[in-house]
Amino acid sequence: MATSHTPRAVSAPGKVLVAGGYLVLDADYNGLVFGLDARIHVHVEPIRTKSGVSLSEITVQSPQFNGAQWAYGYRLLEKDGGVGVTQLAVSHDVPLSRNPFIETALTYGLSYISTLLPDTPIAPSSINILASKPYYSNPGTPSTTNPNFLNYNATLSEAHKTGLGSSAALVTSFTAALLSYYLPASKFTTTTDDGLRVLHNLAQAAHCAAQGKVGSGFDVASAVYGSCLYRRFSPSLLSGLPSPKDSGFATELRALVEGDRWDTSIAKAAIKMPKGLRLVMCDVDCGSETPGMVKTVLKWREQNKEEADRVWNALQQGNEALARELTRLATEDEGSSGEGKYDALSKIILGNRKLIREMGVASKVPIEPPQQTALLDACSKIPGVVGGVVPGAGGYDAIVLLLEDREEVIAELKNLVSNYSATANEVAVVDGQDDFKIGKVGILGVREDMVGVRDEDASQYQEWTATN
Ligand SMILES: Nc1ncnc2c1ncn2[C@@H]1O[C@H](COP(=O)(O)OP(=O)(O)O)[C@@H](O)[C@H]1O
Ligand SMILES: C[C@@](O)(CCOP(=O)(O)OP(=O)(O)O)CC(=O)O
């Protein structure tokens, strides 16, 4: 007989890689990542039907989007193959659309759970996903109970992502909610170091499998731990894992996520935000697609080892200096004021940008293209703005600024960006570098958040969770 469970909810933050783009793909280098106060929440509850008939399936909904419903049958497989998950039709009028991130997180999560509770059948459940406003730039109608969750009246494929790492936050909060719901607190909780370690390893494995590639994993690390200085795991850890359904998958998965083979280094104490400063992210509306950037940069590095090593080692030093100066200001220098307090920070940021541009020019990848240089320079001239960079892989679609957390500074920034696109286009033409024109620049409603995955009050989602 399946046991009945209490509803559970967990949220995980989005991310911004402030330093270490590309470098963080190599375990010899660090990434400096900030978690954001944009969160994806996942709520799990017993499945409810009007008729009281119990269904043996797990349904997943993303009620902010049209047609975002998935239903899965599941069963324990022989030969230790884990829990097999099969997508089912939701109804005659909803076409079957796959969501690899949900399907894989469910497969990995249930398989791990089955190794801890081998004699307990997995009960049916209903899972709801809610993403806070800054993840998508589509207009939407606020929910009545939490204005941070919008109803988009659009499908997920029509959602315009702002690049905050929705899939990593989703896989992390989904995995944490599933484990918290099905496992007793003696076997899993998000409030112990062991629980977080298992969650991190399991979410990394599931996220890589769903993506079909092994990235650096900084996004999953910050979804679990919040802001941190991150050093990646060896990709070979995952290549030895059997595929879901294959013989031995469940036991190997458990050994991998619980064992000590995981060589990630996550230093939370190495990253702090000084009191009085904050991050602001700007979304640049231009729709540039940059899928080949990583490939091209890595190929350049391979073919120009000496030059690349010089730039990367200098950048690593600059990135470490940035982390150190932020931490110094947040601790030793707390409370002191005065002219020039942030001069060292500004200088480090400018030095790092110069190296990033050097890497961009050498590899012919627009990491900080001239249009973004102009935008960053214009923003950095505002009194109270310490500096800014192109986050993550860079390109045309976002910038992140470090600034004094005062209304005048934000107001001045709003004023600048609201009229910005015309100026930017002039710069592009004058520079003659290319004819790419950046569009409207908008300020995203996010800032840094040091907290990673977090249990939430499961009763706050009632408006969204009424199931069939
Ligand atoms: N609110 C959501 N509900 C369900 N699935 C989501 C949601 N947000 C993101 N996803 C999943 O994550 C995918 C986007 O991941 P990806 O392209 O890696 O973007 P990102 O850079 O934001 O992680 C979507 O196609 C969808 O499968
Ligand atoms: C190049 C990278 O080091 C950083 C990319 O960071 P972004 O924040 O740009 O990533 P996406 O959200 O996946 O587009 C690749 C990596 O670390 O995996």
Automatic annotation (TrEMBL):
<dbReference type="InterPro" id="IPR036554">
    <property type="entry name" value="GHMP_kinase_C_sf"/>
</dbReference>
<keyword id="KW-0752">Steroid biosynthesis</keyword>
<dbReference type="InterPro" id="IPR016005">
    <property type="entry name" value="Erg8"/>
</dbReference>
<keyword id="KW-0547">Nucleotide-binding</keyword>
<keyword id="KW-0756">Sterol biosynthesis</keyword>
<keyword id="KW-0808">Transferase</keyword>
<protein>
    <recommendedName>
        <fullName>Phosphomevalonate kinase</fullName>
        <ecNumber>2.7.4.2</ecNumber>
    </recommendedName>
</protein>
<dbReference type="InterPro" id="IPR020568">
    <property type="entry name" value="Ribosomal_Su5_D2-typ_SF"/>
</dbReference>
<dbReference type="InterPro" id="IPR035102">
    <property type="entry name" value="Phosphomevalonate_kinase"/>
</dbReference>
<dbReference type="InterPro" id="IPR006204">
    <property type="entry name" value="GHMP_kinase_N_dom"/>
</dbReference>
<dbReference type="GO" id="GO:0005777">
    <property type="term" value="C:peroxisome"/>
</dbReference>
<dbReference type="GO" id="GO:0019287">
    <property type="term" value="P:isopentenyl diphosphate biosynthetic process, mevalonate pathway"/>
</dbReference>
<keyword id="KW-0753">Steroid metabolism</keyword>
<keyword id="KW-0067">ATP-binding</keyword>
<keyword id="KW-0444">Lipid biosynthesis</keyword>
<feature type="domain" description="GHMP kinase N-terminal">
    <location>
        <begin position="161"/>
        <end position="226"/>
    </location>
</feature>
<dbReference type="GO" id="GO:0010142">
    <property type="term" value="P:farnesyl diphosphate biosynthetic process, mevalonate pathway"/>
</dbReference>
<dbReference type="GO" id="GO:0006696">
    <property type="term" value="P:ergosterol biosynthetic process"/>
</dbReference>
<dbReference type="GO" id="GO:0004631">
    <property type="term" value="F:phosphomevalonate kinase activity"/>
</dbReference>
<keyword id="KW-1207">Sterol metabolism</keyword>
<comment type="pathway">
    <text>Isoprenoid biosynthesis; isopentenyl diphosphate biosynthesis via mevalonate pathway; isopentenyl diphosphate from (R)-mevalonate: step 2/3.</text>
</comment>
<comment type="similarity">
    <text>Belongs to the GHMP kinase family. Mevalonate kinase subfamily.</text>
</comment>
<dbReference type="GO" id="GO:0005524">
    <property type="term" value="F:ATP binding"/>
</dbReference>
<dbReference type="Pfam" id="PF00288">
    <property type="entry name" value="GHMP_kinases_N"/>
</dbReference>
<dbReference type="InterPro" id="IPR014721">
    <property type="entry name" value="Ribsml_uS5_D2-typ_fold_subgr"/>
</dbReference>
<keyword id="KW-0443">Lipid metabolism</keyword>
<keyword id="KW-0418">Kinase</keyword>
